[in-house]
Predict the structure.
Amino acid sequence: MSILEGLRLAVNGLLSNRLRSALTMLGILIGVSAVILLVGVGNGATIAVQQQIQSLGSNLLTVFPSNARGAGGVQQGFGTGAIPSAGGRAQLTYGNQNWNSSLTGTTQDFPSVRNYQMASGQFFSSGDVDASSKVAVIGPTVATNLFSGADPIGQVMKINRQNFRIVGVFAPKGSSGGFNNQDDVVVVPITSAWSYLLGGRGRNVQQIYVEATSAEATAAANTEVTQVLLDRHHISDPTLADFQILSQQDVLNSAASTTGVLTLMLGAIAGISLVVGGIGIMNIMLVTVTERTREIGIRKAIGARRQDILLQFLIESMFLSGLGGALGILIGFGLARVLPLVVSTLPTPIISTPSVFLAFGISVGIGLFFGLYPANRAARLRPIEALRYE
Amino acid sequence: MITLEGVTKIYHAGEVEVPALKGLSLHIPEGEFVAIMGPSGSGKSTLMNLIGCLDQPSSGRYILDGYDVSALSDDQLAWIRNRKIGFVFQSFNLIPRASAVHNVEMPLIYAGDNQQRRERAMAALESVGILDRASHLPNELSGGQQQRVAVARALVTDPAILLADEPTGNLDSESSLEIMKMLRDLNRQGRTIVLITHEADIASFASRVVRLRDGVIVSDQRQSVATEMVQ
């Protein structure tokens, strides 16, 4: 018996029991569309997180101390591509307005290293850093909340009860929400932060931001920074280094592994519904085989071999699940388009071509796996008993 | 054509052994029309299953057209049924969802014989006189028409023997007569036919009558062939 003949038999068999076939197919359809949609949402979330991280500057290295040391001469080591940073939370007051924001003490090269643009005013200068000037640059979120539309440039606000004059406002970076709002910041010269705001904690640097010349050069920059810092700290064994370097790539990788787990979990949940659908197929195929016992007997009497009967029922179950899978892919696609329009907080699902082929392959495989037992049962029926079956 | 030598068949009903055939020997040469008769429980259904290669004897030998059937595997038996035997059953046993012509094609499909399959099926339908019903489903046909389709299906592979198990059991007397005349004509064209029946008037169409009782042959007679049904 040819495959084509088997397909004809399968279609014929499925059409003879339309409602039952459709309901059985629905099980696989729901499973496959759930896999397509949920894995798509997982992928979408991964991409969204990656974009957010990359907006920090993809060629950025961050050096954290393993134990605190003086920051002396950071610039001498790296030139303008490296800036020290120290900070914490700060309470900002202007008039009767209050706002709690993230305080960063740093040097004049902060905007270029951290990829910030100015919306108005200027960033503070090296003179301000040398003189410990009480000047500050604020992010757009702070400007909105503290000044509610008025021009903050030249105004004096209080940072932790110290008067600071606002010299500039950052342009929005766009990636608000998420774990770290880059628009809700206040930036002051690091010397001023040491002198007036981080009292009692000494002249410590919490982080050094290093900007590599390009994203590709981050690995080389990483090596270079490590070498310079080891030399300056007089450490000969790299395993004893008193600092850690985190590149954006590291952050990306750890975020990717987190969202990867998320995608896997979503896929697994959807996969369970596929298995349930497969059991539905097995159930219906067992009923079908019992119903058609007599037909099987007739076919065997006129010369069907075991493999002919096996093939007939396997093709039937694979056709059922394959068709359900194909429809499920279409519906998954449709939902992936429509759902973000309805639920705005959902990350835009991204459906990859391999996942579509995989879903289809798995659905056909489920038909094969769950069809095997019923088909085998049919193939092993003894012709005289099958013929006698009423 | 058919040779049975000392064939026995024992069924196991739990612990009890039930002998259905007790050392039966029978030879049916090519071109014969044999009726096998006997009351229920005489073993004629068992004999029909053995001759039809649907079952295998517990002991003894069965040679069909030169093949020793008692030693064959399941798939080899399927091949023998496909090529050597044409079945006509009491309850027609057509596949309900398939059209008449598709039912007739089916043995050719399993034979893997795709050459002019449709044409050969149509020719078989024509030979039993219901070519005009080729595209009908079995439930759209009368009992007599269904049995004709079944005869066409039995003939399409040009088998060595035609095995008819109570072929008129579900038919009215008019259709019965038509089917029996058809079998008689097929025999006259040289076809070997084995007919299982418990009705004497049906058996009267055969040229030889073998009577079974309690698993053994009690009589084996030749007779002149009837032309009309004895009512």
User: Anything to note?
Assistant: The mean pLDDT of chain B is 91.
